[in-house]
Amino acid sequence: MKNVKCLVSKFKEMFSKNPLIIRSPGRINLIGEHTDYNEGFVLPAAIDKNIFFVISPRDDKKCLLYAADLNDDFEFDLNNFCKSEKVWPNYLIGVVDQLKKSKLEIQGFNCVFGGDIPIGAGLSSSAAIEAGLAFALNEIFELNIEKINLVKLSQRAENEFVGVQCGIMDQFINIFGKENKVLKLDCRTLEFEYYPFELNDLQIVLCDTQVKHSLASGKYNARRTQCEEGVRILRKFNNKIHTLRDVDLEFLNSHRSELDPTIFKRCKYVLNENSRVDASCRDLENGDFISFGRRMYESHEGLRYEYEVSCKELDTLAEIASNHEAVLGARMMGGGFGGCTINLVKKDGLEDFKEKIEKKYFAHFGKSIKFYITRIESGTSIISEFEMNRISNC
Ligand code: GLA
């Protein structure tokens, strides 16, 4: 996909109508990994990589979807749909399914979508599709769904229709992201706070291992089950425990012998990661990116050795980064098992950093790496005519 204007031309060619245009961003997570479904804390931000939806309502019950990047289409009827054999339509049908379950009346729609969020790179292209479509349908059918309910509905679409038991982080930041701010979310109460993330002489660099991760592969859900197993056992000793959020390190340590060693490691990681998010926010208040970066490295170690969701490519990248003087912090990001590392890099050492990583990564794995230099942007929004006029032609 060249740009959003190409999507609009395609839409007009296919449907000859005036559409609404929505921008739905991918996300990064600075720290707080695998904590959301344990009712912990996360610190994500929306970024300048997007999926665009070009969409308009129909008078009948048909939904016509065209995935521009895959050059593939799909059609379903609102009154009669089921899970598709193809993977991509399910992220969209799942949203429609949730609207139906919420008894919200919609008509059919025509939709062309595409963008530049790499798939399987841990930048949450799936949440961008779900929350972006939920936002778009809310607009074109004037459903008056509150933002927080768009988030919950999109998460349920993934849990129930796609079948990944993801937490709420990705859909939440997709809707609530703000330019140049990270968002600290309490995944238990859903209270949130923005922290300024003024980078000045730093840059957020994502290094894409090109190892495609798929949360649907089962390893993600397995981690979630292990945490629940930890809670089930700890609850025997205190019935006020409902999630790992109710457990502190002292209590966990005092029941170490009752837990399977793997379960113990998983729980310990989650408790420590929650504390790291808190401490990182204090670092941001103090403008202390050095300390912030150190916690990113600690987070990676935890994900590598205790939560065991890393892989050799991610570990190698984090290690190379930790030995480069321009890097303040680095860690794997997102669900894991592939995807990207996130790095805080000094601008004046950026070129050297990229060169070294590229060389060493190739020497280790015989494959190339991709870099994304990202900016923190706002959450899902309508693209106005004024903004469209500023975008170059297709
Ligand atoms: C994926 C999930 C999120 C979260 C992260 C790990 O991105 O969709 O809910 O659990 O993994 O932090």
Please tell me about this protein's structure.
- The chain is of the alpha+beta class.
- It has 2 domains: 4-197 and 377-390, Ribosomal Protein S5, domain 2 (2-Layer Sandwich), CATH 3.30.230; 202-374, Alpha-Beta Plaits, CATH 3.30.70.
- The chain is built from 12 helices and 14 strands.
- The strands form 3 sheets. Strands 1, 3, 4, 5, 6, 13 and 14 form a 7-stranded mixed β-sheet that branches.
- Strand 10 and strand 11 form a beta hairpin.
- The longest helix is centred in the last third of the chain and has 25 residues, at 261-285.
- The chain is globular, with a radius of gyration of 21 Å.
- The protein starts with a helix and ends with a helix.
- The model has no long low-confidence stretch (mean pLDDT 96).
- It binds alpha-D-galactopyranose (GLA).
- Alpha-D-galactopyranose is lined by residues 33-34, 36-37, 124, 166-167, 169-170, 215, 334-335.
